[in-house]
Amino acid sequence: MNTWLRHHLYAIHIAARRLLGTPFSSLTNIIVIALVLTLPLLASAMLVSMQPIARNISVNPAISLFMKEATTIEQTRAVASQLKNEHSQSILTLEVVDKADALQSLKASESWSDALKVLPQNPLPHSIIITLSDEASPTEKAEELAEVWSKLPDVDVLQFDSAWVQKLEAILSFIRIVLGLLAAGVALIVITTIFNTVRMQALVQRDEIAVARLVGATESFVRRPFLYFGAITGLTAGLLAVVLTTITLGFLNQAITLLSNSYGIPFSVTLPSASWLALTIALVMLIAATAARWSVTRHSHF
């Protein structure tokens, strides 16, 4: 155990010395990786910050059933009870609105009170307001229910606006796709950067590697410093990317706050959770170490 720990500490020491031995090259690689990693971090911050807003905009769509003029309130309640029994899993809440109550609500509004005074009778129908459950929230399921309910004999008009649901799903889906593409781009740049750096180091230190092999060093002993070199580079770049993202969000939130306050909707973009950031940095370290191993394996056979 002591020998294993000593070998790894030695590899970390050698990797750190090689990083510090070429400060300009190492700093350039770290900055390039950090700048590229900042982009998916910003995209993920936007995605995480938009999810609470999406939940507050009533993710559960509502369907309004307006009954025919000849339909009584008792018949309306009977239809509501039938829908509740037949589609209990798809319905979150159901409310029957009497047309007399609806008229009184409109009369209480100053913008409608004068116009309603000249009407000889109540023009409003009885209605049923249905809020769909999470099970029926996907657009396809909601549209299917709306089509079925619109064919009920007592229903005159069905109102269901699914456009906002489709737009919200499209926006979130777009951000997820962009986030995936950015993550793939980051992985490619990390692999390319670390691969070329380790290749150059392996060629420069070929004599040192050859002597180590002559005195009995194993391939794992030879490659281990290069793996730690990649992991340390990934760790430093990941931490720098978090700092750059935090600074960028600070400037971005200043503009967002002014805009959101003008609409009366407080909103700001925040970083993902610490566990998510730690997982991202660990993934970058793993990719960098893998690229370093691949490079030293290919270019240390001499």
From TrEMBL:
Sequence ranges assigned to domain FtsX extracellular in this UniProt record: 63-156
Matching Pfam families: FtsX, FtsX_ECD
Keywords: Cell cycle, Cell division, Cell inner membrane, Cell membrane, Membrane, Transmembrane, Transmembrane helix
Localization terms from the record: Cell inner membrane; Cell membrane
Stated name of the protein: Cell division protein FtsX
Lineage, broadest ranks: Bacteria, Pseudomonadati, Pseudomonadota, Betaproteobacteria, Burkholderiales
Example GO BP: cell division
Keyword Iron annotated: no
Task of the protein: Part of the ABC transporter FtsEX involved in cellular division.
Organism superkingdom: Bacteria
Transmembrane domains' residue ranges: 27-48, 174-195, 226-252, 273-296
Domain ABC3 transporter permease C-terminal stretches: 181-299
Protein family according to the UniProt entry: Belongs to the ABC-4 integral membrane protein family. FtsX subfamily.
Major localization class: membrane
Membrane topology: Multi-pass membrane protein
GO cellular component terms listed in the entry, alphabetical order: cell division site; plasma membrane
Organism from which the protein derives: Advenella faeciporci
Keyword Cell division: yes
